[in-house]
């Protein structure tokens, strides 16, 4: 269970002399829908990378339930998050394996189906030769299915829906989607995550009105 995530004066430099984040302080409470917005390069993904401990802050601290996240077992800590990244890699595996990111047990198929529906790509997947057992990409399979950028992105988004975790992270999940698909996706995220903590990242403000709070970043700083 997660009650609270806290950033206190967090700064991150990837290389000497540059700062991707400057003194970011924020709190995310259990069940909140938080929206991070700002132009590209403003530090949104860096917040996620620090939160998930792909990197540690250069200065400042991140706490989870009052404990520094460095004190947690990394694997157990990361298991708290389900994430969909904009540059999700689609692997040369079946649709279902791509959603679960591992082999699929028979009793998990309905879970995958539900996630594909929430990501609004279920009908497309069902139109493929072998449904959710269709191999994606032509990398290793001559008859592998090649989908559009937006459809591949939706399969990546299904990864965040399928996992039952306290915190869901959507990092620009709609960058390759048209406005109607974006609206639908946002609606499904809201509906499916009523009691969950959600971090939604976008460079567009279009779907912000239902968020509990909005953090606006510019040049690595919180400006609003
Ligand atoms: P956003 O998600 O808002 O587009 P990022 O957090 O990805 O912004 O990037 C913020 C800044 O940090 C950018 O200037 C970017 O070039 C830099 N940056 C991000 N990741 C890395 C990295 N792994 N190594 C070096 N610089 C990085």
What is the topology?
Blueprint: E1 4-12, E2 21-29, E3 33-37, H1 44-51, E4 59-64, E5 67-68, H2 74-78, E6 81-85, H3 95-100, H4 109-118, H5 122-126, H6 149-162, E7 167-171, H7 179-192, E8 197-202, E9 213-218, E10 221-222
Residues 14, 20, 38, 40-46 line the site of adenosine-5'-diphosphate.
Outline of the structure:
This protein is of the alpha/beta class and 224 residues long. It has helices spanning 44-51, 74-78, 95-100, 109-118, 122-126, 149-162, 179-192, and strands at 4-12, 21-29, 33-37, 59-64, 67-68, 81-85, 167-171, 197-202, 213-218, 221-222. Residues 14, 20, 38, 40-46 line the site of adenosine-5'-diphosphate.
Q: What spatial form do the alpha-carbon principal axes imply?
A: globular
- Terminal CA distance: 29 Å
Task: Please write the string of helix (H) and strand (E) elements.
Answer: EEEHEEHEHHHHEHEEE
Structural Rg: 18 Å
Task: Walk across the major sheet and give the strand order.
Answer: 6-7-8-3-9-10
Number of strands: 10
Query: How much is the average pLDDT?
Result: 92
Main sheet summary: 6 strands, mixed
**How many H/I helices?**
7
Report the uncertain regions.
none
The residue fraction in helices comes out at 25-40%
Describe the structure.
Helices cover 28% and strands 25% of the residues. It is an alpha/beta fold. The chain has a 6-stranded mixed beta sheet, sandwiched between helices. A 4-stranded antiparallel beta sheet has the order 2-1-4-5, with helices on one face. The longest helix has 14 residues, at 149-162. The radius of gyration is 18 Å and the shape is globular. The protein starts with a strand and ends with a strand. Bound molecules: adenosine-5'-diphosphate (ADP). Adenosine-5'-diphosphate binds next to helix 1.
